[in-house]
Amino acid sequence: MQLSEQAGSLGRLAARLHRGPTSGDTGPVGELGSGVWVHELAIGQSIVAAVTERLEGERVHRLVLEVGQLSGVVPDALRFCFEVCTRDTPVEGALLEIREVGGLARCGDCEREVEIDAPFGVCDCGSPSLEVLRGRELRIKEIEVD
Ligand SMILES: [Zn+2]
């Protein structure tokens, strides 16, 4: 069985989780020794929430995520946080496959398409008016259940 999830709803879930208490939190973020992975942790939680609400008693054995290079998500950090967030859930032990999506933008002046690895860049023609076409994805691409 394969399900799809739009990046938009996942983004909203992450945003909602972000508003939780952040100071004096003794949760998993504290265990990591710093707050730098709060973003990935929130995403891990929202992934688990989005996936488990679609399950009907199955267990997930493989999950494919598309992560854009401009999304600000660090794949290795997300992998770690995914393990933390999936403990004692039907997603625990699932194989997490992260597909990185390169950044692509179109120049507003010369209309050339340029590959970028940061949200802000400059076209070869010198113009900074780049419209991002690809690379902000954060999407559950496939869910495989038993
Ligand atoms: Zn240009």
Write a structural description.
- By secondary structure, the chain is of the alpha+beta class.
- It is 29% helix and 26% strand.
- It starts with 6 loop residues before the first helix and ends with a strand.
- The model is unreliable at 1-9 and 11-34 (pLDDT under 50).
- The structure holds zinc ion (ZN).
- The site of zinc ion has 7 residues, from loops.
Q: Count the strands?
A: 6
Unreliably modeled segments: 1-9, 11-34
Give the names of the bound compounds.
Answer: zinc ion
CATH architecture classification: 2-Layer Sandwich
The figure for the number of domains is 1
Strand content: 25-35%
Strand order in the largest sheet: 2-1-6
Structural class: alpha+beta
Mean pLDDT: 80
**Helix content percent band:** 25-40%
Q: What order do the SSEs take from the amino end to the carboxyl end, as H and E?
A: HHHEHEEEEE
How far apart are the termini? 8 Å
Find the CATH topology: hypothetical protein PF0899 fold
- Main sheet overview: 3 strands, mixed
Kindly provide the radius of gyration, computed on alpha-carbon positions and rounded to a whole number of angstroms: 17 Å
Counting H and I runs of at least 4 residues, what is the number of helices? 4
Shape: elongated
Report a brief summary of the structure.
This protein is α+β, with helices and mostly antiparallel strands and 146 residues long. It contains 4 helices and 6 strands; from the N terminus they run H-H-H-E-H-E-E-E-E-E.
